[in-house]
Amino acid sequence: FSLFNIVQFKNEGCRSSSTISSGGTGSTNRNGTCYTSTECTTRGGSAAGSCAAGFGVCCVFLISRSGATVAQNCTYLRNPNFPNSYSETSQVSYTVQKCDNSEYHVF
């Protein structure tokens, strides 16, 4: 018998406990990716709920700095002045790094 069990799980999409306000329609939960707590931190995300039967965290990626690189699937872009509106006349730009050679969608 073994004292240790190795748990492996896929880094699939998950529904986080972090919410987005959507105007007059209430709020909805952000999407994230299931990682270990360490992987989430290393990749620059924030743990927001659990996944993989409690062995993983639903990791949410949020960028609010102009000039930043989007390197994770399902990253949320937020204006640099959040929660206030962004009234600057200068542009805000981001670099999107392709995560997977088989898919490329920007919404």
SSE topology:
Blueprint lengths: L12 E9 L5 E9 L1 H6 L3 E6 L4 E8 L5 E2 L4 E3 L17 E2 L11
Parallel strand pairs: 4-6, 5-7
Antiparallel strand pairs: 1-2, 2-4, 3-4
Report on the structure:
- The protein has 1 helix and 7 strands; from the N terminus they run ββαβββββ.
- It has one helix at residues 37-42, and strands at 13-21, 27-35, 46-51, 56-63, 69-70, 75-77, 95-96.
- The chain starts with 12 loop residues before the first strand and ends in an 11-residue tail after the last strand.
- It has a domain at 13-85.
- It has 107 residues and is mainly beta.
- The strands form 2 sheets. Strands 1, 2, 3, 4 and 6 form a 5-stranded mixed beta sheet that branches.
- 17% of the residues are buried.
- Strand 1 (13-21) and strand 2 (27-35) form a beta hairpin.
- The chain is globular, with a radius of gyration of 16 Å.
- The mean pLDDT is 85.
- This is CUB domain-containing protein.
In short:
This protein is mainly beta and 107 residues long.
